[in-house]
Design brief:
Elements (H helix, E strand, L loop, with lengths): L3 H5 L15 H13 L12 H14 L4 E4 L13 E5 L4 E3 L1 H8 L6 H8 L14 H11 L2 H6 L7 H9 L1 H11 L21 H10 L3 H16 L23 E2 L3 H14 L1 E8 L9 E9 L2 E6 L23 H13 L4 E4 L2 H9 L8 E3 H9 L7 H9 L6 H4 L13 H28 L3 H8 L2 H11 L2 E2 L1 H26 L8 H11 L17 H7 L4 H25 L11 E3 L9 E3 L11 H8 L1 E2 L4 E8 L2 H9 L3 H8 L4 H10 L8 H14 L5 H8 L3 H14 L1 H17 L1 E3 L5 E3 L8 H37 L5 E6 L2 E7 L3 H13 L14 E6 L7
Helix pairs in contact: 5-6, 5-9, 10-11, 11-12, 12-13, 14-20, 15-18, 16-18, 21-24, 23-24, 26-33, 28-29, 28-31, 30-31, 31-32, 32-33, 33-34
Length: about 850
């Protein structure tokens, strides 16, 4: 619609597109909503909303009020003055004269002069061509106001600026009229009409029901019911068998009956946000039994709801005559809590909420929507410090939390189900309380640090996705693992006999002390160094160096690999099969690596060797259920592709676009030899350089990896940088940025702090510099695969496919799918994974995903 400004300048807002067709019907709905909530509203033809705000702000100040305009709109900043301020609801900060000066370079009363000069392309305010905000503020500060500037324009020394101001003087005056807000609009409603009005519940509920706002309806009705009945209903009687306990000074409450539970649920529903935590019998969420739940509705106001304690209170007697604590029966508590935990209008806040999601899923409850204070802290401070609740509470709240060891002190086997209820209350309720406090502190920081979009699109959706993977688990072949364990044991015994012969006598190969004595005292091998304990060092890197010239350390390395595979996988995996599901359920840490990569534990799927035959044998034991196959989808050379994009290396980018053998192409470019008929050893060297460079490899490291002299390795690296100078530029640029800011960032905005980048110790500083080079690439790869993981379950479901995501290992995702759907599933998975960067960050190189499927994980490659 047009306003009086169009009569001043007919092209005003002429470039604005028409509103989208789906938006137009919503204007009436907004008016209806405002009316339903009994909020005053005003509209006027020929004026804009900003003019009405300006008019009512003036009237309010003249009436003696203090005005706060809730907006971040720069056009309203001209209204800031004594008695009138602004509040930015996105950045959660007040806007006063200092903030206006920061934005425009002038005080609020000069804002319209600056806007008149620089114009506004969005509203089609012409301004003076060639003059931006910085120049405009400089001119106004020098000359005082627009009219003085235009009158003295001929004095300006810069020819182009002088000519523009003289030629477009009238255009600047028109622009000033357009940007000046009208403070004397003949508004139809007096200021008094905007007083806060009481809610008309019947009118509001009618509107909400018509538009199906179920969560709001539940919240309003529960609040109304509570208000109406609080005076009429007597407080529930304390169970006769329990002595009433005074609430702790913290305000934490022990909830032992349904009436109290319903009261807390009503409070949480009304608040619209609740801190939430579960207490269980185990760290393994799949095997854990629920012991209790805690809720926090405000800082310092929290409760604990015991549901599975077996001792620690007075009350009913068990069959053996012991005292059982009084608590809400588990099924009744869950029945009451389920609507709250699934209420879309109540935000649940947890710390490592993935665990709580899993625990509640085992009881048929889907926790959503949620925020995770741990992941918010991770988005803000990854790499700077740990993400445990107690550490964050101490660091950011100045609060030392109760430790688990304190509440289980004296127990032979720590079990929360046996903790006395008063101790359990204080410990558990504090967890929910602290997590809510951290959320209140950290969530606004996401906005301030421009991390909100990153958190909302990558980190926030992940707990539910990963919890589903962990819960589903993966099948392992028990018989195959037993066979492998026996095979590894026999081969270890054979290696042990040979090692003892070479050593000239028996010793414990698993003892670093005894091995060091054999290597350096008995065999007199070079390189022996004793540590503080007096024992020789025998780490893998030293043994690998010694193995070049002696058989014994070579065989020890083989023995160690078999011992690790036997104990960590062949034997341990059998013990980790869940008796209820018959599957292995790994646990993924969402904050295990500062770069954002997931870390797998119990079992660690990411450390299974894949370049050795023995390691691949372990993967053969991971199998699909009958009638199904395991489907592997693996990003091809994703970090190299990201390096080509980020460092902007034309030759590498073109090679990836053309689908060339990148290592052969690199060898051809660096060593000046044709690709056809290339010696495989030359390609291997190029491959080592390609992958080593993105990890900041040194000549010493490359020489060790390739088994060549250090001088030769240094020449390879020099030739590589000479051919691809953009790589060195990227490395130096990244290290310099990290030294200045303390962190590096991925192309998606993930921050990774590197605390050692300025360390006085050269070794630690060098390590941090290498990490700084790789973190933006590894982090971006982690961002991409996380985006794919979030998108895949709904895409597979929409395609009518039964494929389930089971594992994430580095750049690979593993699925279980009916054999007949494998090809269709692979097609959907490739499409999603190869486009996971879009639309956030278009890449100048293609992402490529290799897929395969078979009865076992190893055969799927």
């Amino acid at each position: 619609s047009t306003t009086f400004r169009n009569r001043i300048y007919d092209a005003y807002k002429a470039n604005r597109p028409d509103p989208p067709p789906e938006l137009i019907p919503q204007f009436a709905l907004v008016r209806e909503a405002t009316e339903a909530f009994n909020v005053a509203q005003v509209e006027m033809d020929d004026y804009e909303a900003d003019d009405l705000i300006a008019t009512y702000a003036r009237q309010a100040v003249e009436a003696g009020a203090t005005v706060t305009i809730v907006s971040s709109d720069k056009d309203l900043m001209q209204l800031v003055r004594p008695g009138v301020g602004m509040y930015d609801p996105m950045k959660l900060r007040a806007i006063g004269p200092d903030e206006v000066r920061e934005k425009f370079g002038v005080p609020p009363e000069k804002v319209i002069d600056v806007q008149a000069l620089c114009g506004d392309s969005v509203d089609n305010v012409p301004g003076v061509p060639g003059i931006g905000v910085k120049t405009a503020s400089e001119l106004i500060n020098n000359y005082g106001d627009l009219e003085t500037l235009l009158a003295r324009a001929a004095e300006i020394k810069q020819p182009k600026r002088r000519e523009s101001l003289i030629q477009y003087a009238e255009q600047a005056r028109i622009s000033k009229e357009l940007v000046t807000l009208e403070e004397y609009v003949p508004v139809p409603a007096p200021l008094g009409d905007f007083r806060l009005r009481p809610t008309d519940h019947d009118k509001l509920l009618k509107y909400l029901r018509e538009n199906q706002f179920r969560a709001l309806i539940n919240r309003i009705e529960s609040r109304r019911l509570r208000t109406e009945t609080s005076a009429a209903v007597p407080a529930p009687e304390t169970p006769a068998a329990v002595e009433p306990r005074p609430a702790p000074s913290s305000g934490y409450e022990l909830v032992q009956d349904e009436d109290a539970l319903c009261r807390w649920i009503a409070d949480a529903t009304e608040a619209g946000i609740v801190g939430f935590d579960t207490e269980t019998t185990a760290l393994d969420a799949v095997a854990a039994r629920l012991v209790g739940l805690s809720l926090a509705v405000a800082p310092g106001r929290a409760c604990y709801i015991p549901v599975g304690h077996v001792s620690g209170g007075e009350g009913q007697l068990d069959l053996a005559g012991g005292a059982l604590p009084v608590q809400v029966p588990l099924d009744r508590a869950l029945e009451r809590l389920k609507p709250l935990l699934e209420d879309p209008g109540v935000l649940k806040i947890g710390h490592n909420i993935k665990y709580d999601i899993q625990v509640m899923a085992s009881h048929g409850i889907r926790v959503e929507p949620y925020d995770c204070s741990m992941l918010i802290a991770f988005a803000l401070h990854a790499g700077a410090h740990g993400m445990r609740l107690d550490e964050l509470a101490s660091r950011y709240l100045g609060h030392e939390t109760i430790k688990f060891s304190e509440v289980t002190a004296g127990s032979r086997r720590p079990n929360f189900a046996e903790v006395p209820l008063d101790k359990a209350r204080d410990y558990a309720a504090e967890d929910a309380d602290v997590c809510l406090r951290l959320h209140r502190l950290f969530k606004p920081e996401l906005l301030k640090q421009h991390q909100l979009a990153f958190y909302e699109t990558i980190e926030r959706p992940l707990p539910a996705v990963v919890a589903g993977m962990e819960r589903h688990g993966v099948k392992v072949d028990r018989a195959e693992l037993n066979r492998l364990s026996a095979d590894f044991g026999q081969r270890m015994a054979a290696l042990e006999s040979g090692i003892h012969v070479l050593a000239g006598g028996a010793f414990n190969i698993g003892s670093p002390k005894q091995l060091g004595e054999v290597l350096f005292d008995r065999l007199k091998l070079p390189g022996g160094k004793k540590g503080k304990t007096g024992a020789y060092g025998t780490d893998a890197s030293l043994l690998e160096e010694l193995a070049r010239d002696h058989e014994l350390p070579r065989r020890v390395l083989d023995w160690r690999q078999l011992a690790k595979l036997k104990s960590t996988y062949a034997d341990a995996l059998v013990e980790q099969i869940n008796p209820a599901t018959g599957r292995v359920h790994t646990s993924y840490s969402l904050v295990g690596a500062a770069t954002g990569r997931l870390a797998s534990t119990d079992p660690n799927l990411q450390n299974i060797p894949v370049r050795t035959e023995e390691g691949r044998k372990i993967r053969r034991a991971f199998v699909a259920e009958p009638g199904n196959v395991l489907l592997s989808a693996d990003y091809s050379q994703i970090e190299l592709r990201l390096a080509a994009h980020v460092a902007d290396i034309p030759a590498l980018k073109q090679a990836f676009r053309d689908g060339l053998d990148i290592h052969a192409m690199t060898a051809s470019e660096v060593f000046g030899i044709p690709v056809e008929g290339m010696d495989p050893m030359v390609r291997r060297r190029a491959k080592a350089i390609n992958f080593g460079i993105i990890y900041g490899i040194s000549a010493f490291g490359l020489a060790n990896q390739l088994g060549i002299p250090q001088s030769e390795a240094a020449e390879f690296i020099r030739a590589y940088f000479a051919k691809f100078p953009g790589i060195r530029d990227y490395m130096e640029r990244t290290k310099a940025f990290c030294r200045e800011h303390g962190y590096v960032a991925t192309i998606f905005g993930r921050k990774c702090f590197l605390t050692g980048i300025k360390d006085s110790n050269p070794a630690r500083r060098s390590f941090a510099e290498r990490a700084a080079i790789n973190a933006p690439l590894q982090g971006a790869a982690a961002d991409i695969i996380k985006r794919a993981m979030i998108r895949l379950p709904p895409r597979l479901k929409a395609a009518g496919l039964e494929a389930r995501m089971l594992m994430q290992v580095h750049d690979e995702l593993v699925f279980e799918t009916p054999a007949g759907e494998a090809e269709a599933a692979a097609s959907v998975i490739r499409e999603v994974m190869e486009g996971a960067n879009e639309p956030a960050v278009p890449l100048s190189v293609p992402l490529v995903v290799d897929t395969g499927w078979a009865a076992s994980w190893d055969a799927a490659h």
